[in-house]
Amino acid sequence: MNLKDDADEMQGDLVALRHELHREPEIGLELPRTQERVLEALQGLPLEISTGTSSTSVTAVLRGTARDSDDTTTVLLRADMDALPVDERTGVDFASTNGAMHACGHDLHTTALVGAARLLSHHRDHLAGDVVFMFQPGEEGWGGAKNMIDEGVLDVSGKRADYAYGLHVMANGIPAGLFVSRPGPIMSASHTLDVTVRGAGGHGSSPHRAKDPITAAAQMITSLQVIVTRDFDAFDPVVITVGVVDAGTAHNVIPDSAHFGATVRHWSAENEEQLGAVIRRGLEGIAAAHGVEVDVDFRAQFPLTVNNAEEVAFGEGVIRELLGEEHYLESPRPTSSSEDFSYVLDRVPGAFIGLGAAMPGCDPIAAPTNHSPRAQFFEGVLGDAAAVYSALAVEKLAVTAGGTR
Questions:
Q1: pTM
Q2: Can you give the residue ranges of every domain in the chain?
Q3: Which of 66, 105, 256, 373 is the most exposed place for a label (fewest CB within 10 A)?
Q4: For all residues of the chain together, what is the average pLDDT?
Q5: pLDDT greater than 50 at residue 371
Q6: In what order do the strands lie in the sheet with 189-198?
């Protein structure tokens, strides 16, 4: 069995599927055309397939035939399938034209997991246990992983999954073909903050006769940057970015209210406990000083993504053995983006692994980032991604069944 060679042989088919997915991206939890393509791509394989009821998820179970008992290990492999509300500006001949875009590379994830399903089905006689393929909608802020967990994806093989692995491509920062991970926290927890300031409108020439919500909101926005440097340890940071500001209808009118929205990120349980209270206290104090009222809506979005140290070390060994020593790098620090694969890793030991997919010939540092309308991903990594997904399952099942790597 040579997973790398077998994956390379299917590279053309993987590229063709990736182009189909990329041309017609879909957003959120309802991805009917994407689901249809995945089901078509899995057709004929010896899989137990089910679809979601609260979303267009696809779950497939492969029963290995190298088991020596019914009490075997289950490995879960996950790929997300949804796109972003971004108008594509890459200029590629398979670009989307429907106002959405696979600007985060989920089309590559889906394609690679289809490739892994085909590889592992072909090598079913080398699997000493079960593999669950988790094709997930709604990663981009919709909580699709939690939906699938609520519908039983972690227990679909007949028992709780023992290990879980996910991959994510990156359009910049890392050379193509290089896998990156780290033990412990690897991606931040994410929260949303919505703030409405209620004052009393009036004429712009006489602000003393009104209660101006805009000046109060402006001070709140700048004060948030002070709060994160004075209330939290610089070595355990909090990041707050205001991305929405909405107030007023005319240059000479003081409005009754102003609104702003922000994303809030952190990397520790300690900060999780105090974050909402600290932000609320600061904003309410500024509101009182301005004589206005403030409504603060602070909501958890995704928990911290935490890798199991043993599974990261296992994944590193699999990648180095499969592709070569130079194909793996340990990340020196977590990233400030967030992931709903965190819901899976909260319940099942596993690892989330990044994969460089910057285009050949470009400077990876200067290349457009994930979520950019100009983000491009090198599809030459699809074979390696499919092979790594497959090898993680094969090797983990062999080890837990008492074999050797």
A1: 0.91
A2: 3-185+304-400, 189-302
A3: 373
A4: 95
A5: yes
A6: 238-247, 257-266, 189-198, 293-302
The reported pLDDT for the residue numbered 66 is 85
Instruction: Classify residue 389 by burial, with Cβ atoms within 10 Å: 0-12, 13-18, 19+.
Output: buried
Count the neighbouring beta carbons within 10 Å of the beta carbon of residue 50.
15
Angle at 180 between CA 119 and CA 337, to 5 degrees: 110
Amino acid 248 reads: G
What tokens were used for 136?
């997930």
Per-residue pLDDT of 38-88, as tens digits, reads 999 999 999 999 999 999 999 999 999 987 777 789 999 999 999 999 999
Q: How far apart are CA 265 and CA 249, in angstroms?
A: 32
User: Residue 404: its pLDDT value, please?
Assistant: 47
Which is higher by pLDDT, 68 or 113? Answer: 113
Tokens of 254: 């003081």
Q: Which tokens go with 58?
A: 């696809």
Q: Mapping DSSP to helix (H, G, I), strand (E, B) and coil, where does residue 43 land?
A: coil
CB of 395 closer than 8 Å to CB of 322: no
Give the pLDDT of residue 336. 87
Sequence-separated (6 or more) residues with CB below 8 Å from residue 25? 34, 82, 83, 84, 96, 98, 100, 101, 102, 107
Which residue, among 395, 379, 344, has the nearest Cα to 404 in the 3D structure? Answer: 395
Q: Which residue has the tokens 């101006």?
A: 212
112 residue type, one letter: A
66 contacts: CB under 8 Å, gap ≥ 6: 125, 126, 127, 128, 397, 401
Contact assessment for residue 188 and residue 168, using Cβ atoms and an 8 Å cutoff:
no
Question: Which CATH code of 3.40.630.10, 3.40.50.150, 3.30.379.10, 3.90.850.10 fits the domain covering 3-185+304-400?
Answer: 3.40.630.10
CA 58, CA 135: separation in Å to the nearest integer? Answer: 5
Q: pLDDT tens digit string along 226-255?
A: 998 998 998 999 999 999 999 999 999 999
CB 133 within 8 A of CB 60: yes
pLDDT tens digits along 124-167 = 999 999 999 999 999 998 989 999 999 999 999 999 999 999 99
Q: What is the pLDDT of residue 403?
A: 53
Is domain 189-302 in CATH 3.30.70.360, yes or no?
A: yes
CB-based contacts of 397, cutoff 8 Å, min separation 6: 64, 66, 72, 73, 75, 127, 128, 129, 131
Residue 154 main-chain phi, psi, to 5 deg: -75, -15
Give the whole-angstrom CA distance, residue 371 versus residue 375. 7
CB atoms within 10 A of CB 132: 22
